[in-house]
Design goal:
The chain is of the alpha/beta class and 340 residues long. It has 12 helices and 9 strands. Strands 1-2-3-5-4-6-7-8-9 form a 9-stranded mixed β-sheet, sandwiched between helices.
Amino acid sequence: MSDTPYEEREFVSVEGNPFGLVYKGAITENVDGAVNIHAIKYPYRDFYAVANVYTPAGYDPAGSYPAVVVAHPNGGMKDQVAGNYAQKLAENGYIALAFDAAYQGESGGEPRCLDRPANRVEDIHRACDIIMQYPGVDRNRVAALGICGGGGYTFKAAQTDKRFKAVATLSLFNSGEVRREGFRGSQVDSIQDRLAAACRARQDAAEGQAPALTPNMCETATPEQADAMPYDLYREGYYYYGRDAAKAGSTFSYTVSSLMELAAWDARQGAELINVPLLMMMGSHADTGYMTIDCYEAAVNAPVREIFEIPGATHIQTYWKPEYVKQATDKLVEFFGNNL
C-alpha cells in the first residue's frame, strides 16, 4: 500500500455520467477554469477509501481555500446527495471532499455492508486527515457537513475532532436511536429479540458462514408496497435509492450483527462537547425532524447554534429537489462564510 496520503484514481464509468455521478446537474467533464472533480483514494486501515474532491472554478493549488468534508447518508454513496452538495459548495468557492464510507460503496473493507458507528465516525476523522493535506486547503477553515445518517455521525465526530471549525447537518438521522427503538419508537418492544438475532449472526460468521444481511427495501418491496409505507422517509427513499439516484454499491442492507454496536450508540451522547458553530437543517415536513431537534437541544455549548427549516420539504426532498437544495446551499454558504 502506498505511503502517499491520497492518489488520483481512474474514474468509474457509469451510464449517463463518465464520473459515476447520479445527481442532476452533475459535472460531466473537467473544464479548465470551471469546478472540477478529482477522484482520489487513500490508505484506511489495511485497504483504501475512495473519495471525490471538488475544487472551485479557477482553483490554484498554491492558493488558500476553505474546505468541507461531506458525509453521505446510510446506504448512500459519494455520487448521490453527498456529491450534489459537494459540487454546490465548490461552486461557491470551497474545496469539498465526498467519500464512500469504509466497507461500503467503492471503498474497501470486509465484510461488505458493515455498519458499525465507530467506523462511520472514523471515516469522517480520516477524511479530515486527507482534506487537511490537500493542496490549497486552509487548515484553519475546515468544516464538516453530514447528511441523514452521515449527519448523525458528523454530529458525533465533531464532539472530539477540533479540526472542524464549523459543523452542519442536513436531515440528520440518529442511526443508533432508530436501530435500537425503531423509527419514531415503532420497535421498542422487539430490541431484545433483535439483539439475540444479531448475536447469532455474529457467531455464525465467526464459524465461517457468510455474514447475514438485513433486507434491502429497494429489492424486496414493490412500488405498491412502497407507496403504502407510513413514513415519507422510507416511501420516498425507495424511489430515490431504487430508481432516481440508483447506483451499484448503494444499498439499504447492513450486516445483522452490526446491531450489537448500533443499539448501544447514540449521536446525542457527548453533544455538550461541541464547541464550534453548529447549523442543523431539516425540511419542515420531514418525519425525521425530531432527531435534529433532539441533537440541537443537547448541543448546549455550541457558541452559535441554529436550526434552519426548509419550508415544505420532506427528508428525501432535501437531497434532490432544486428549490430545496438551493435554500440549503445558500444557508450553508452564509453559515460557513460567517463562521470559518
